[in-house]
């Protein structure tokens, strides 16, 4: 799903604080999936996950010019896709600083 889990709000609040504290930061939000389903669907879903976070940050007052989004699908796993827990860990959105 391309929704923000309520348990992520604390971390997103920390990201908002960071972006407010360092107004020169530009970040990329990268969406990721596990390897279940088609490659096409996973690329689409991962992009939607990234956009959902960008939209959240914009609602929190962060300028769209400081935010980029990209879907990576299942191409950058952080865990195994052989277990339910590993697949859950691979379904995520991360940020990377692209300019400061």
| Integer average pLDDT | 96
- The dominant shape is elongated
Unreliable residue runs: none
Number of helices: 3
Radius of gyration: 14 Å
Give the distance, in angstroms, between the N- and C-terminal Cα atoms: 31 Å
SSE sequence, one letter per element: HEHEHE
Question: Beta-strand percentage?
Answer: 15-25%
Q: Find the count of extended strands (DSSP E, 2+ residues).
A: 3
Largest sheet geometry: 3 strands, mixed
SSE class: alpha+beta
Measured as a percent range, the helix fraction is 40-55%
Strand order of the largest sheet: 2-1-3
What would you note in describing this structure?
By secondary structure, the chain is α+β, with helices and mostly antiparallel strands. It is built from three helices and three strands, in the order H-E-H-E-H-E. The chain has a three-stranded mixed β-sheet. The mean pLDDT is 96.
